[in-house]
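Budget justification aside, the reviewers requested a transparent look at the raw inputs and outputs of the sequence design task funded under Objective 1. We therefore reproduce one unedited record. The lines immediately below are the structure tokens for a 426-residue chain.
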């Protein structure tokens, strides 16, 4: 482990960011905003300052859909190592073997040619054909989880997280029974995606990554012994030259990206249905309406709020000269409300014709590999949930996730009201 920050350095960093946020700095504003504060008014303030807003923290911020899209598709912009992104190095070694970080070391954070090589290995599992073949099993997972719910339950912990965890676990070849531990690891990882801000967070992150490495090493060994029809078996049998680091990081990326995002699509969808009661009946009755509903949730309240790119060379962007390495924060959630593209952008309208122009899944070479899968999961989960519980209602305050990058609920207590159990299984 190197370059660990001391408690004093963490304190100084937090104080600096909060100070800049108070002064209206856009980058610090995003980083310092409290979990329960609605971030969208702040994004609008940034938009009002222009398309490319300079932060005193040595970055540019943009909420323009056009600029975000062009940066994401421009290979002169690169993804950085976690070191640059989080200002803390987290390389760990155990028994002489590198402890692989499923985010930092994965192809999400790599550039071509490594990115291209690794993404290609798992792409076949996410083609439209492959997804079509999985739809029946996803439907069954949704129904099985609905069957387990009582009159009062927590949407996030008992449904929205359970469905995507089961889906991605099946796809990877993880045996049943790991739901709770994955949810705990996922939270620890997601919390640190926008930086590590305290020693406690760092300790949790390290413990999580070590536990994950032990777990996945065992699974890899098991699948080498008895391969099945799943991603881990495919990687160990068809790509024997793959390094341990690439294998552990690729499977870890799929695991955590596979559920830590989709859980929020589902919970944000439930919240949007509560805020817009007129959408509940069509959502519960029509799978086609559910498609538009999910697209509009992705646009209006996306699970991934921003991403960052770094110019790999000095270049011009929207009239600004960017030196090599200057971070550009692409506020996807703000781009999705760009009034130049979306009419009445703050309105939730599941029948909006151009909702799919959102950037919730990014664009360019890092476009989300799981976009199709999470659309199916979100549509089935929300359609079936409201079909089963047409009177679903909030039953207590919503607790938000701490992360600024990942937006969604941590707890969302509901009561079912009158149910339609007999109608739900078809
Ligand atoms: C609503 C659900 C989801 C959202 C909002 C989402 C969002 C994103 C975004 C914004 C990126 C790109 C980040 C960037 O450009 O810096 C991304 C990449 C990625 N996502 Fe998703 N994702 C979702 C679901 C999934 C699922 C279900 C899986 C896997 C089963 C998945 C796997 C990945 C992978 C592997 C990448 C890296 C792609 C690359 O670097 O080439 N995601 N996702």
């Amino acid at each position: 482990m190197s370059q660990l920050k001391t408690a004093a350095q963490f304190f100084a960093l937090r104080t600096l960011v909060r100070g800049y946020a108070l002064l209206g700095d856009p980058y610090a504003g995003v980083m310092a905003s409290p979990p329960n504060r609605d971030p969208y008014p702040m994004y609008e303030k940034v938009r009002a300052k222009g398309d490319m807003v300079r932060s005193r923290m040595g970055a540019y911020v943009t909420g323009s859909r056009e600029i975000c899209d062009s940066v994401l598709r421009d290979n002169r912009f690169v993804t950085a190592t976690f070191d640059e992104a989080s200002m803390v190095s987290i390389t760990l070694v155990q028994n002489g073997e590198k402890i692989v970080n499923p985010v930092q070391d994965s192809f999400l954070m790599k550039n071509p040619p490594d990115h291209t090589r690794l993404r290609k290995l798992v792409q076949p599992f996410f083609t439209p054909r492959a997804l079509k073949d999985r739809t029946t099993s996803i439907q069954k997972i949704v129904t099985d989880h609905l069957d387990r719910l009582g009159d009062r339950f927590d949407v996030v912990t008992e449904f929205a997280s359970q469905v995507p965890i089961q889906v991605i676990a099946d796809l990877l070849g993880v045996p049943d029974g790991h739901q709770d531990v994955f949810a705990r690891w996922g939270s620890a990882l997601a919390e640190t995606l926008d930086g590590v801000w305290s020693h406690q967070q760092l300790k949790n992150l390290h413990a999580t990554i070590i536990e994950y490495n032990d777990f996945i090493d065992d699974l890899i060994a098991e699948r080498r012994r008895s391969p099945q029809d799943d991603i881990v078996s495919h990687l160990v049998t068809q790509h024997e030259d793959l390094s341990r680091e690439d294998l552990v990081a690729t499977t870890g990326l799929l695991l955590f990206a596979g559920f830590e995002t989709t859980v929020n699509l589902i919970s944000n969808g439930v919240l949007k249905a509560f805020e817009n009661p007129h959408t509940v009946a069509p959502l519960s009755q029509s799978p086609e309406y559910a498609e538009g509903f999910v697209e509009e949730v992705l646009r209006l309240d996306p699970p991934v709020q921003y991403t960052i790119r770094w110019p790999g060379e000095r270049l011009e962007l929207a009239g600004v000269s960017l030196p090599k390495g200057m971070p550009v924060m692409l506020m996807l959630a703000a781009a999705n409300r760009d009034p130049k593209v979306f009419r009445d952008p703050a309105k939730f309208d599941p029948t909006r014709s151009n909702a799919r122009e959102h950037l919730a899944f990014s664009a360019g070479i890092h476009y989300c590999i799981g976009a199709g899968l999470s659309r199916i999961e979100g549509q089935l989960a929300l359609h079936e949930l409201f079909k089963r519980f047409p009177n679903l209602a909030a039953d207590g305050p919503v607790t938000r996730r701490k992360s600024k990058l990942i937006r969604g609920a941590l707890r969302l207590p509901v009561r079912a009201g009158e149910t339609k159990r007999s109608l739900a299984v078809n």
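The first strand starts at residue 53 and ends at 55. The longest helix spans residues 199-225. Computational costs for records of this kind are itemized in the attached budget.
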